[in-house]
Automatic annotation (TrEMBL):
InterPro entries: SAF, SAF_UxaA/GarD, UxaA_altronate/galactarate_dh. GO terms for molecular function: altronate dehydratase activity. GO terms for biological process: D-galacturonate catabolic process. It comes from Novipirellula herctigrandis. Residues 15-89 form the SAF domain. The gene is uxaA. Keywords: Lyase. It is an enzyme of class 4 (lyase). This is Altronate dehydratase.
């Protein structure tokens, strides 16, 4: 088994995203859990608890975590890239694609009451 400070968890073998177990830096990341592969390449800084793509995703592709679709790619997402509000439309909260990617706050003109 490979070792690295970059480690991420894959919950289900069908998942196309992994969750960072610590703050990740670009480079090889060891995958633990139900991963198909032993490792993946991270292509940017990813904070602990956040997701990154394990495959290239096209606009409209389902984001699979826990073995189920949790959202859809709102833009093309390359393998190893951070997956979050800025590039995903949530299946559970349709306004999520309009929220600020850093804070999660509604953006101007997109306040819901």
């Amino acid at each position: 088994m490979k070792t690295s400070n970059n480690r991420a968890f894959v919950i289900n073998v069908a998942d196309n995203v992994a969750t960072a177990l610590s703050d990740l830096r670009p480079g090889e990341c060891v995958l633990v859990g139900d991963a198909v592969h032993e490792s993946a390449q991270v292509r940017g800084d990813i904070r602990s608890g956040h997701k990154f793509a394990l495959v290239d995703l096209k606009v409209g592709d389902a984001i699979i975590k826990y073995g189920v679709a949790i959202g859809y790619a709102s833009v093309a997402i390359e393998c190893g890239i951070w997956v979050h509000l800025h590039n995903v439309q949530s299946q559970f909260d349709e306004r999520s694609g309009t929220l600020d990617g850093e804070t999660g706050a509604p953006t101007e003109g997109n306040v819901y009451v």
